[in-house]
């Protein structure tokens, strides 16, 4: 029997995410702007959506955009407590009707066509969350530590005090370069150790570009980590050990939806736009 979908004046579908259904469940919530959230189900898969106009969410008010994004994440968080696995979809992904196909039918057709690949992805994601791990180095602290602990550098510094001003200047340049070289060696060595320890606690890691920070602290590693729920305590315990190092520190956030590991599932829709404040 052909599935019959109720007529909606709002023929766009805002998509929050996709879910794996291994047992009979229902899910409702209030989404962006208080819109009722519902499921579009195909076999063991469903899309989590609300009905909307076929146009992007835009606002000149930063607070409005932040509220929408928070609502998006809240719905995903609520869904993760109901479904066996939830795959997040980017904020402001909207599916429109295509020809004679309603937007519900477009999503249903896509779920059917991509059932195998989506099911594999969801089984890969099951019982896992994303965490962000960022490693920082207080370069000034590390430089001072190296300068006072390295015998070669201490000898070079003593030699400077015995030289004439012109020669001392050249020796000072040599000392500064030697310290920076040793700092780089120490950072690379510690980064390798840190990365491998984090990797041992993770199912997968995406290495992100380090972000710019203030002059006193440099971000060395920026990692998006897929972590099994059974291994998160082990990761947290290792990160706590970094507090013992004067020169290095860690920022640890999560759990988050697995955005960094979803890849391109944009085939679900022609996303009208991503929302930016103008």
Automatic annotation (TrEMBL):
<comment type="similarity">
    <text>Belongs to the gas vesicle GvpF/GvpL family.</text>
</comment>
<dbReference type="Pfam" id="PF06386">
    <property type="entry name" value="GvpL_GvpF"/>
</dbReference>
<keyword id="KW-0304">Gas vesicle</keyword>
<dbReference type="GO" id="GO:0031412">
    <property type="term" value="P:gas vesicle organization"/>
</dbReference>
<dbReference type="GO" id="GO:0031411">
    <property type="term" value="C:gas vesicle"/>
</dbReference>
<dbReference type="InterPro" id="IPR009430">
    <property type="entry name" value="GvpL/GvpF"/>
</dbReference>
<protein>
    <submittedName>
        <fullName>GvpL/GvpF family gas vesicle protein</fullName>
    </submittedName>
</protein>
């Amino acid at each position: 029997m052909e599935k019959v979908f109720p007529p909606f004046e709002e023929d766009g579908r805002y998509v929050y995410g996709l879910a794996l259904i291994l047992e009979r469940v229902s899910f409702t919530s209030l989404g962006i702007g208080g819109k009722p959230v519902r499921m579009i189900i195909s076999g063991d898969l469903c899309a989590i959506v609300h009905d909307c106009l076929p146009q992007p969410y835009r606002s000149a008010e930063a607070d409005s955009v932040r509220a929408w994004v928070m609502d998006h994440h809240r719905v995903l968080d609520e869904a993760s407590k109901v479904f066996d696995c939830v795959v997040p979809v980017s904020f402001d992904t909207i599916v429109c009707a295509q020809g004679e196909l309603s937007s519900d039918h477009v999503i249903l057709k896509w779920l059917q066509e991509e059932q195998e690949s989506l099911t594999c992805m969801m089984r890969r994601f099951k019982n896992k969350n994303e965490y962000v791990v960022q490693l920082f180095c207080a370069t000034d602290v590390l430089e001072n530590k190296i300068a006072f602990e390295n015998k070669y550098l201490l000898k070079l510094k003593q030699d400077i005090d015995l030289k004439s001003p012109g020669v001392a200047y050249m020796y000072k340049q040599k000392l500064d370069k030697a310290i920076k070289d040793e700092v780089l060696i120490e950072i690379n060595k510690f980064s390798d150790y840190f990365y491998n320890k984090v990797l041992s606690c993770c199912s997968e890691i995406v290495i992100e570009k380090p972000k710019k920070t203030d002059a006193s602290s440099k971000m060395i590693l920026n990692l998006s980590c897929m972590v099994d729920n059974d291994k998160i305590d082990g990761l947290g315990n290792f990160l706590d050990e970094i507090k013992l190092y004067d020169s290095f520190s860690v920022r640890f956030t999560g759990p988050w939806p697995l955005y960094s590991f979803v890849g391109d599932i944009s085939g679900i829709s022609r996303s009208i736009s991503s929302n930016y404040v103008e």
